[in-house]
Amino acid sequence: MYKIILLPFVFVAMLGAELVNGVSAVVKGEAITLHDVKEEMRLSNTSATDARDILIRKKLEAAEIVERKISVNSTEVYEDIKKMAASNKMSIDQLYDKVRESNGLSSAEFKEKIKEKLLSQKLYSAIAYASMEAPDEDAMKEYYELHKEEFSRPKAFVVTLYSSSNEEALRKKMSTPVFSSSEVKVEERTLPYDTISPELAQLLEKTEPKSFTPIIMDQKGAYMSFYLKETQKPSTNSYEEMKNQLSNLVMGEKREQVLSDYFARLRGNADIVMVREAK
Known about the structure:
The protein is α+β, with helices and mostly antiparallel strands. It folds into two domains: 1-137 and 248-279, Porin chaperone SurA, peptide-binding domain (Triger factor/SurA peptide-binding fold, Orthogonal Bundle); 156-232, Chitinase A, domain 3. It is built from eleven helices and ten strands. Strands 4, 5, 6, 7 and 8 form a five-stranded antiparallel β-sheet that branches. A hairpin with a 5-residue loop joins strand 7 and strand 8 (223-231). The chain is globular.
């Protein structure tokens, strides 16, 4: 278990009363401030305790990244942002605007977050690589039987597609069905599950019947939203159909367990001083 101790007098004197009053925890000599905790609470929409745990984990990860000499360059950051924009059918500028609107992050802050994510991914791969072996047939079959309900998928989605180059007109049409505008195109469609992108399938699966999906952009830059009328009867993929994916799923589960155990041990052995809770 990590160490919970009172700050010794020398440490208090060194930091100064004003600084200590603003500190929530100290990890390997690195302070986590109450401001840091409150900001993490805002970004992660979580409690003060969970936010501090997240920040402690980040401090431990940062120390490991330095120790292992892991790095990420600007090209890697830009390529990841390009992929993220493409998967959301946005330009990079549109993605920056959306992030600024949703999270209040500037493009520079967003790039820093992407860099942190990529560094963590490299660290996780380095930690897990030495402890992982490909799952055997028995492990994959057991996973399939335990999670069979997760492998069912809809046959098709019956939707009304609303699209427009004018986002405001589209929003008005979505909120006021009787509103008529030549700028908004309306199409009735049936979308077989196997013919649409995984991203669109996931979006429609998360959408409640008789409601709209969030507005997204198509490849030509037009705005669109799907009104989900009906999800046609689901079917379950067989073990053989899922075999290739099962290996990745089992490996992913093992990887998460390896990382969880690793950082639990790291936290238990680290010099962590808990000072005060954020309110």
